[in-house]
Amino acid sequence: MARLKPQPAQTKRKRAGRATEAAEKEAVFDAPRRTEKVDRAPITALNESQKRYINAIKSFELTFATGPAGTGKTWICGALAAQALTEGIIDKIIITRPAVEAGESLGFLPGELEEKFDPFLQPFRDVLNERLGKSFVEYLIKMGRIEAAPLAYMRGRTFKNAYVILDEAQNTSPLQMKMFLTRIGQNCKVIVNGDMSQKDIPGHSGLEDAIKRLSFIPAVKHVRFQKGDVVRSGLAAEIVAAYDEPLPDLPDGNEVRRVN
What we know:
With 260 residues, this protein is an alpha/beta fold. The chain is built from nine helices and six strands. Helix 2 (48-59) runs parallel beside helix 3 (73-86) and helix 3 (73-86) crosses helix 5 (122-132). It starts with 7 loop residues before the first helix and ends in a 17-residue tail after the last helix.
């Protein structure tokens, strides 16, 4: 039996429905720009290393970024992820990191898992709030468009149509890193950030292991930041440099005396 062609009134209603749906979706993404101050400035590099990092994220499926704190790794990948989400290039942002850090475990922190893990993701929340607006970020989290979870919760998943950011990757084991990287699916950008000088776990780091194993793959890029690339503040740059130097000798048997 031949299918009946929709009547003109039905066709108009369907078109009106699609138009309304599209308008509502556009209105949702425009909401923070009407109600909150949002940083719309273009994402620009402050030095050559940041320029290579931005180009790598845009051009490669998997980007490793290593180097000291304060070089802009978190801000840049968070801002690029926010831009891709609002432009409809991806469907969601996934942010993860190892749950064990600096000798502390989430099990010792109060609250549910989300409450325990939230402080670890605050640097990314700051970037997303700045680029999208705080209330809109909260909305996207509730809708599942922005997701943050410990690395262990990535097991068994497939990443697709997403920006996936693994932070503090120096604290992964080689097996954890393998588990994470084998989740990569279609239309997916994966950014892995870390600083080997801040490794808090015993044994080999999954970050260093993965860079050695995968750097030859055409879809993979490794960007190295140096202490001269620190942009956080002059003091932060001096502190990073000081920790790279040998510890100066103190007077024999005496601590530095504080003068009141």
